[in-house]
Amino acid sequence: MSVLETRGVRKRFDDHEVLRGIDLDVAQHEVVVLIGASGSGKSTLLRTINLIERVDDGQIFLSGMDITDPRVDADRIRARIGVVFQHFNLFPHLNVLDNVTLAARRVHRMPKDEATARGRELLDTLGLGGKAREYPDRLSGGQQQRVAIVRAIMTDPELLLLDEITSALDPQLVGEVLDLVRELKGRGSTILMATHEMSFAREVADRVVFLKGGVLVEQGTPEQIFDDPQHPDTAEFLARVHS
């Protein structure tokens, strides 16, 4: 069963149609990577899936449930999805442990002792155990982004959305964040992510999706997309990136 299905999703801002009929499935435990130039619609698609933006037409299904139905409680849907954006959005007045457990306690009503134990376990597992009592301004950008990812997976979300999570980082910090995504893939997380890191997309994706101008142009395995693209727009984009 697909964790995520989008059917004919369209989104317009004023006179500009950013998404022009997107059909996409993401299966359980699958990692799907969105590639494309800036303005191709990658981030907007992720924002519609998390109901930050409402679609103008089409439907989005989360584990078979139509979440674009206006009667749906958007906050309950968001509680089932983990999201990490390019900017860390950590609370500066809370330490690392409180940052990663806050939503679990307040939104998911997880008991404080349980949330604390779960948060410490994840931080330890992912190499951040020694930072639990630090505040965000004492962490590197890569560490802050890793904390944001830990926060997103605290409650085992059905779907994890990652939106250009390395674009705000210095090049030397990118690797440690991508290592964490590899770890999540190994744990069986279902992930839809947008990235400009083509080598990483080739390595970690089960399927690569190329968007241009709000249209899903081509999708396939990393080998097919990167080594033998079928659409000239895909080939032109990749040639431009590699040059």
UniProtKB/TrEMBL annotation:
User: What region holds the ABC transporter domain?
Assistant: 4-238
Q: Give the main location.
A: membrane
Q: Which InterPro entries does this UniProt record tie to the protein?
A: AAA+_ATPase, ABC_ATPase_HisP-typ, ABC_transporter-like_ATP-bd, ABC_transporter-like_CS, MetN_ABC_transporter-like, P-loop_NTPase
Provide any one GO MF term from the record: ATP binding
Q: Which SMART domains match?
A: AAA
Question: Record's Pfam families?
Answer: ABC_tran
Q: Where does this one sit in the cell?
A: Cell membrane
Family membership, please give it.
Answer: Belongs to the ABC transporter superfamily.
Q: What is this protein called?
A: Amino acid ABC transporter ATP-binding protein
Q: What is the lineage of its organism?
A: Bacteria, Bacillati, Actinomycetota, Actinomycetes, Micrococcales
